[in-house]
Amino acid sequence: GVGHYTASAVLSIAYGKPFAVLDGNVARVVSRLYALNGNLQQPDFRAQIERRLAELLSRRMPGSFNQAMMELGQIVCLPRAPRCSKCPIRKTCEACAMDKAELFPAPRPRRAVELRYLAAAVIRKDGKVALTRGLEEGLLEDVWNFPSAFGRTSQEALDRLTEKLAARPALRFCLARRLGATRHNITYRAIHVDCFEFQGSTTGVGFRWFPLAKLDQAAVSQLARKIMRLAE
Length: 232
Known about the structure:
- The protein has seven helices and seven strands.
- The chain is of the alpha+beta class.
- A hairpin with a 2-residue loop joins strand 5 and strand 6 (about 190-200).
- It starts with a helix and ends with a helix.
């Protein structure tokens, strides 16, 4: 469960081992120091940064070096409006010499926005509503959400939601009515959400039941809060 960044930090700071820590702040400092353009998602750029960082690393005090580099990127070598006049290495910084510090490194390209459709089910029982953990595609796994399904169209999302509910044991549901629609953004997804009320019988298998009146106090997602307002 420990990645390269954490391992390098622990080994250098706690044990004095010569491992350089590389994060976004450190990459920015090194990129500007040598006027290297690119972003860490590009293998060639990352390799250049790692090579330069290995050359700079203090073998005698690797922990102090790593902490100094991280702090330099956090409070001086900022992404916007870097404080070059206060930088202790400005005299050897190529980007500073060109007066183009903000151009390094290149911004990470943004992923194109994808329009998605989500159908969400409001299932009521004794003044409570049924919720499940997370959405599909590994989204919002740590919070409660209304049962839902993605689709390429609104109809496909509703069909998939109906199939998911029908596949659960001890559930007998039918679509009652459409409650309305809302929109929600998660990373690169622009989600059109259709909210539907389902009626039927259930033993509660696979659901957690929350009082609708107190749902706003529970560990639910912002998306669930939007659906809640439609349900109310």
